[in-house]
Specification:
Oligomer: homodimer
Structural class of chain A: alpha+beta
Largest sheet of chain A: 8 strands, mixed
Number of domains of chain A: 3
Shape of chain A: globular
Helix content of chain A: 25-40%
Number of strands of chain A: 23
CATH superfamily of the largest domain in chain A: Bira Bifunctional Protein, Domain 2
CATH class of the largest domain in chain A: Alpha Beta
Strand content of chain A: 15-25%
Strand order of the largest sheet of chain A: 6-9-10-22-21-20-17-11
Chain lengths: 581, 581
């Protein structure tokens, strides 16, 4: 190594040691006859000291060093007169006797500091400079540790990591595939996997019984904020298990990560049915760091000539603690919030539970004080609380109220990113009905098993069929999801028929899996975690982009390397394709 | 878990335990009143016993179980009368009192045994059954352990695993890229990485100083035997290092894997220059498990009117120990071997060093006994040895002789797959000249640094310039290779110019890297290992395909899932491409 030590490790025990350090010039300060340079690397910052009186030539050299120059220095460790006890190296500095400039640097286009002046686009274009910032570096270090600890846990339980192929076959179900033209097989295409789903099921058929993989997956979606065309999953599957085995095994993984990464001992994760999650939180991934549950007022409020409520399928409320003195302006803001097209509510009704015991509502003319009191009791509201009420179609109103609940959670600082509330959501419906296309879709995916006791409902009442499917939710974010799979060919066939696959389509797309089911497929199930998302949650961030070394922007573009980009005509020709713009 | 134990763990200490086992029926045998079923899972085989006298009904059920049925049995552990001490479970059997058939199986198309009757193509089509064979399973278990131990070693040295993107940008240098049309950016394409080369260099610029990744890479090559379009690398890079640091760090990795995976303590790896490897082995990846070095006879043999030798640039020999009594037929076979088009030699001359001290050569009429003796002395041949001689252009003749050397190594059983001879080959030339296209190519890649002392030769004598490049070779197989990289923009520019990139091309393809070099790029270098290949070597196999769960065939086709395949017209339309067949 060119260096003897890194920039984060020298301390008072190294006094008088001769050392060689390498790193980047973070900043330099001239104080009278002294020049101080902060030398930075991945491990920390060490202060270099130059004395004009002792070595004017060297001090002159130091003064000419620009920001982000890469240098090598030789010197000796000395105790600082002015200690900085906040830094691990803050008690020492290096009396330098030789500088070697390893490479110069132009002035970077933004400051390489935790709080930078660089905008998102500029930082992405110069991502290699952005990655030098200590907060970004910590994110990638966290990610590395998450990977290491995940593998330690999985390996300790006899899971075997098996790489599944990246060049696979396009399937029409789900999101769009990225495809790859085959040169050797003209007119044919590989697809990039949206997940290794069918391969991991084949591994169960092959007897590998405990598989996992940390693996890139791909989805050609219209990118919303914080989606990436390539993302990473912790993909897992087990054989000879029931749902309970999967939940306990992967609750174990989550606890291991909480403990090793965050230093937190977490108790047994609560579980909630999908039905309860929708009823009490309006959301299949509830943030249970705080209560503020949805309360159904439908029965209480009807029959008072208030048409909005009388016509509503659902009238639902939440109670915001200590908010009874919200101003008209604050309430208007929240009304605008729920009326935004993304939420699409038609309005917001409030009820102030005043500190003096009186009630004040936006629908006073329809409801007496006595009646309003019933609302407050139903909501378990206390003096000083503010109740919000919405009405309309059940699912839409629940979802809108969920958004308001989350917004109120933010406003009331109930969503502390350093508090973690994991939750299993279970008993998802097997299907969802799509009004537009007038057909069923698989809520999880077409390989998910219905609950055995609900199989008779498949023909009579499919929407009521519950799946052996489950999600792990942390702080209102879905970290992972999975299911017990179908392992019998007949049931899988029936499922595909219900999802609108013809026999021919099914054979064409999933024939290899159906055939595999005829050669001794064991009962099996699994789960997949969004690795980027989990890292972000543990890092206390909403954005997965901060946890990906080289992310793409919202147009799926890597602005640093300028990709995607046109390719040569000869390349197209070789691939037997042409442009069709 | 449905089971209480797996099929590999019960032994004499479990006698009388009540157990539940799950697995596949490997085979069943009826012996008079008893039926024995071998139950198999990933962990082993356990014998199940059924007694017609005790429970005729159950025994009848057992007799109907077909091969590869998946069953669950409840029973108790008992000591076998007929012990099989070769199996971990061979001292016990299970007295079954209940069988549950979890799934039936059709008769598999080949036997699920180490030695199977299934041909390659059939096994690939039913890969999920092939993967049940214990030898294939052991290969994937080896691979898993290699991954785990690699990560343990790298993590212990503060390397950080960072995922680089899979959807990147096409570059014309090197092998062909697989490309991915972008739907959102019509007419533009991503490319799949042939390696994360530029990204890992950017990570060095970003200050991450010790990076690694076990990562899929892609090459759209015309597939030769044992190449795969997607393959896995252990990709590594370090900053603030010289070549010696890289060699010792990764010799450490290799030793760690030798020790933890193979249980072998390996001494310091020998090193050999590229020049010596070519001179003494005719090969830049010599198999040094055995000597049989190439000996140059050019000077000794000239001037005796034997035109083949007189005209040759190189006359070179090897001596095969104890082969002097090879028959004419054996020698003819070897002559045919070197004349095959893949090798392309024009002929093979032999010299028998007979046990009686006489010499017998195919060119007796040109060379006296005395002269032949000189050859034998040069070759350090002993009585009983057989010397082979070839002549022609230097490089071609060296390579042909290398092939013969390897063939003789095989014939003489000198290439034991359980003996390991690692070797660093160093001092590669920076360029190679291509006669066909009349230009230089980078021997390693365009980012490789010349040796500092050879930089003056860049203009005057480029072919003599040596690179700071190195390969790790084990048993004649290149396991990995790398180099110290260029980290200065000017030198990188000069290199690209010499490789025929115009300024515009260079900017277009590598502009982001060149720009990055202007912002404080540290000295850096790295290495990448072929993970599939390394697993195969450790497993004692020549074929990487045996170490990949779902490999593709020689046409790049996955015959199990039938990929690549045509895609829908609508998909093409969305991607703004059409077929051009």
């Amino acid at each position: 190594m060119l260096r003897s030590h890194n920039c984060g490790e020298l301390n008072i025990s190294n006094i008088n040691d001769s050392v060689v350090l390498c790193g980047w010039v973070q900043r330099s300060r001239d104080l009278g006859g002294m020049t101080f340079v902060d030398l930075r690397d991945r491990y920390g910052i060490t202060q270099l000291a130059f004395n004009m009186d002792v070595n004017a030539n060297l001090c002159g050299q130091a003064r000419k060093l620009g920001r982000e120059f890469v240098i090598l220095v030789r010197g000796s460790v000395t105790e600082r007169s002015n200690k900085n006890l906040k830094m691990p190296t803050g008690e020492i500095e290096i009396i330098v006797n030789e500088i070697e400039i390893l490479n110069e640097s132009k002035t970077p286009p933004f400051t390489i500091e935790e709080n930078t002046d660089g905008g998102e686009e500029l930082r992405m274009k110069y991502r290699y400079l952005d990655l030098r910032r200590s907060n970004v570096r910590k994110n990638l270090e966290l990610r590395h540790k998450m990977g290491i600890e995940t593998r330690i846990y999985m390996n300790s339980l006899n899971f075997i990591e098996i790489e599944t192929p990246v060049l696979i076959k396009s399937t029409p179900e789900g999101a769009r595939d990225f495809v790859v033209p085959s040169r050797i097989n003209p007119g044919e295409f590989y697809a990039l996997p949206q997940s290794p789903q069918t391969f991991k099921q084949l591994l169960m058929v092959a007897g590998y019984d405990r598989y996992f993989q940390i693996v890139k997956c791909f989805r050609d979606e219209d990118l919303r904020a914080d989606r990436q065309p390539e993302f990473t999953q912790i993909d897992c599957e087990m054989a000879f298990v029931n749902q309970e085995d999967i939940l306990s095994t992967f609750e174990g993984l989550a606890k291991h990560l909480f403990k090793t990464i965050k230093g937190i001992e977490v108790k047994e994760f609560p579980r909630m049915s999908y039905a309860d999650a929708m009823k009490y939180y309006g959301n299949d991934k509830p943030d249970i760091r705080y209560e503020m549950k949805l309360v159904e007022l439908t029965e209480i409020v009807k029959g008072k000539d208030f048409k909005v409520f009388d016509d509503a399928e659902l009238v639902v409320a939440i109670s915001a603690s200590g908010c009874s003195e919200y101003t008209r302006k604050q309430i208007d803001e929240l009304t605008d919030f729920v009326k935004r097209p993304q939420i699409g509510s038609t309005g917001l009704i409030y009820l102030r539970v005043n500190n003096d015991g009186t009630y004040k509502s936006s629908v006073d003319k329809f409801y007496s004080e006595e009646e309003l009191k019933k609302w407050a009791i139903a909501c378990n509201a206390q003096k000083g609380d503010l109740i919000f009420v919405m009405a309309g179609k059940t699912e839409k109103t629940q979802k809108a109220m969920s958004e308001l609940r989350l917004e109120m959670g933010n406003r009331l600082n109930l969503r502390n990113p350093e508090v973690f509330a994991p939750l299993w959501v279970v008993d998802f419906p097997l299907f969802e009905w799509d009004e537009e296309t007038n057909r069923f879709y698989a809520k999880h995916h077409p390989f998910t098993s219905p609950k055995i006791e609900d199989i008779p409902l498949l023909d009579s009442n499919p929407v009521e069929v519950r799946a052996n499917a489950y999600d792990l939710v942390i702080n209102g974010v879905e970290i992972g999801g999975g299911s017990i799979r179908i392992h019998k060919k007949e049931l899988q066939n029936k499922m595909l028929r219900m999802l609108g696959f013809s026999e021919e389509d099914a054979q064409n797309q999933f024939g290899f899996l159906m055939n595999a089911f005829e050669f001794g497929a064991p009962p099996h199930g699994g789960i997949a975690f969004g690795f980027d998302r989990w890292c972000a949650i543990f890092g206390g961030s909403d954005s997965i982009r901060d946890y990906i070394a080289f992310p793409k922007n919202n147009s799926g573009r890597d602005v640093m390397i300028d990709s995607p980009s046109p390719i040569a005509y000869e390349q197209l020709k070789e691939l037997s394709i042409k442009l069709d713009k």
